[in-house]
Amino acid sequence: MTNSTDTNRSGYAITARGLTRKFGDLVAVSNLDLDVPRARIYGFLGPNGSGKSTTIRMLCGLLTPTSGSATVLGMDVSGNTERLKPRIGYMTQKFSLYGDLTVCENLEFVADVYSYPRSGRNARMAELLENYDLEDQAKQLAGTMSGGQRQRLALASAVLHRPELLLLDEPTSAVDPRSRRDFWAKLFELSDAGTTILVSTHYMDEAERCHRLAILDRGVKVADGAPADLQENTGMAIIEVLAESPSRAQSLLSELPEVRSVTQLGVRLRVLVPSRVDAPLDLVSGALRDAGVAADSSIVPASLEDVFVAVTQDDGSSERAA
Amino acid sequence: MNALIRLLAVVRKELRQLRRDRLTFAMIVGIPIGQILLFGYAINLDVRNLAAAVSDQADTHLSRQFVAELGQTQVLRIREHVTTPEQLEDLLRAGRISIGVHIPYDFDRRVIDADRPAAHLLVDGADPTILGVANQLANMPVAFDTWPVLTPPRRTLEVRPYYNPERRTAVNIVPGLIGVILTLTMMLFTAVAIVRERERGNLEFLINTPVSTTQLMVGKVIPYVVIGLIQLALITGAGKLLFDVPIRGSILQLYVAAFAFIAANLALGLFISTVAKTQFQAMQVTFFILLPSILLSGFVFPFDGMPVFAQYLGELLPITHFIRLTRGIMLREASLPEISSELLLLVVFTVVAMTAAILRFSRRLD
């Protein structure tokens, strides 16, 4: 059991060790270790079914871990769920406020159940309406609003009681790119003000914005670190190929035993070759030349997508922490 | 204090949602009024106007007079005259008549001969009620005008009808109908209450807030208690206005009894809500309970006349005890202390069902 001074000293809002959750035979989350620093945005990146939601639900006490333990805000989650609830804000993947209540009525309900003090309540609600650009919708039923508006309302509700920790489960999966950008601006404001944010996503551009990132694949954490560090330490050489007939080049390169993966992006191909292979550029351009495919090849820095490909399409041996 | 604020927050939320749910709102008023009109006018245990046919093979003065008298009882409505008993059987089988009157050629002689029945009634005996009516008709006297006026045989017992001397069915039906309507609406409203939040995804948000299970359950129930009492006022009002159903006992005591009964049904509904996975399942379970509530509670059939096994089942239903309370208070001018055991059973039922609902409700997803 970790007491709260320990956590403050270590500077982690969440620590988890060996967190595992099984649903029957399915292992949704397997042996997950996690350290989420305070006042930072920490991302969970992974495809659907990789265990992101299950982990978040275990961290807020909605699901009991099959094994392992988690400490949140200095308290062991098991046994302290009720004490933690007032300190955590949780935004579900699906909109979970009341569609048949107005924006104001929803916020009022949230304020009541979190026992927000009467005196400051009106000011807080006005502040949230303004901050989250909901003033025009104050009297509108939540169910009739657009995806972006609903998402802003959900975030406003989650932060109304000023929680120390925000758990956001794929908050942007149903909104347009502009709303997503605005949404992230809000997250940075909150993080700057000291809120710890754990956010799951399957968008690369969102993952790139996080201070720190864990990549989950079929319930296993396959990478963990700052996005830039992960990009520098992929253990791969990334070769960009501009070929006249990309599809021919792709099938040709895919057959080379040294090549990990070939992804087509428009007319360009991104070829991943493990670092242990000598002279990867010569290997790729040589193979193309021998086959008579006209192409320009060059080594480029890794993108987060390359990181994702490198750590997920793998036998699991390439886990690396930055 | 915070607990009370949270409880009231749930109440206010329910009321606001209810106000916007027009169909439910319409049901609150529509079900009691619709049902009382339907049941009040339709359920009539005084059997009248049974479809009948006559084959009068005697066709004498006496037989024609007899047939006319049968018609005057208003129990039978004679639709057809045929010539043979076989034709009567055909009509029975076709379902066009419930009773056939066969008067043989030697009707007049049979009337004189006390050992032989004068005529025959062919009865669709599948319905015991019709058979009962036929047995009463069988005792109808028939005599020649020239005979001295018979003095009716002396009765052993004199019947003195208390509480409903005019024998109006509505007087007996309406107090029970309160129970049926409240069972239907109260149980249905709360049975879907938790399931709906789960289906709409609200529950995942709700169980992550500091709202406790008890606050959630009690908060969801309170608005419906008020609605149930309003329905009681509607039904008793309509009963008085349309069918002149009296409330002879204390109105306050009637409301106390109704309050206990409403609470029992709401608690049962909440329990169903924690068991059912979907709103459809919740409704199925509700109707599974509603049917025995109508048939085994003494609402339609006299409770004492039911098989012992069915009586035990009936005793388990809250409505059985409530109907005893309402009939007692409204018709027999009984006071609550005289029938307090029924009230106590309702309270016990409420506590058990509510506890079960709270224990069954999990604030986790696993």
Explain what the structure shows.
The complex is a heterodimer of chains A (322) and B (366). Chain A has 322 residues and is of the alpha/beta class. Chain A has 2 domains: 4-230, P-loop containing nucleotide triphosphate hydrolases (Rossmann fold, 3-Layer(aba) Sandwich); 235-301, Alpha-Beta Plaits (2-Layer Sandwich). Chain A has helices spanning 4-10, 52-59, 81-84, 103-113, 118-131, 147-159, 177-192, 204-209, 227-232, 246-254, 280-290, 304-312; strands spanning 12-23, 26-37, 41-45, 67-72, 75-76, 88-91, 165-168, 196-201, 212-217, 220-225, 236-243, 261-265, 268-274, 295-300, 320-321. In chain A, 35% of the residues lie in helices and 28% in strands. Chain A contains 12 helices and 15 strands. A 7-stranded mixed beta sheet of chain A has the order 6-7-8-3-9-10-15, with helices on both faces. Chain B is an alpha/beta fold. Chain B has 2 domains: 2-43 and 169-360, no CATH class; 50-137, abc type-2 transporter like domain (abc type-2 transporter like fold, 3-Layer(aba) Sandwich), CATH 3.40.1710. A 4-stranded mixed beta sheet of chain B has the order 2-1-3-4, sandwiched between helices. In chain B, helix 3 links the parallel strand 1 and strand 2. The chains are: A alpha/beta (322), B alpha/beta (366). The interface between A and B is medium-sized, with 29 and 27 residues.
- For this structure, the CATH topology of the largest domain in chain A is Rossmann fold
Overall geometric form of chain A: elongated
| Strand element count of chain B | 4
- Domains of chain B, number: 2
Concise synopsis of the structure shown:
The complex is a heterodimer of chains A (322) and B (366). Chain A has 322 residues and is of the alpha/beta class. Chain A has helices spanning 4-10, 52-59, 81-84, 103-113, 118-131, 147-159, 177-192, 204-209, 227-232, 246-254, 280-290, 304-312, and strands spanning 12-23, 26-37, 41-45, 67-72, 75-76, 88-91, 165-168, 196-201, 212-217, 220-225, 236-243, 261-265, 268-274, 295-300, 320-321.
